[in-house]
Amino acid sequence: MSSQILAQIEDVLDTIRPALHADGGDVELVEFDEEGFVHLEMHGACGGCPMSTATLSLGIEAELRRQIPEVEGVITV
How many domains does the chain have? Predict the structure, then answer.
């Protein structure tokens, strides 16, 4: 997929990371597939947090979809 879209995804994640770091966690971009899904891996406290699903869908996915029209959704790996 386009390196421009990957760069846009990283830029959005960079705006979200400070909040994740404040809670002892982080997020890593694994891939952006042909169907428009962003595959992310949660690290640190976010990896085992029961709220990570809400963080992904209500926070990260919503922001990625708002800023990048090509993003259809987010998948946790």
Answer: 1
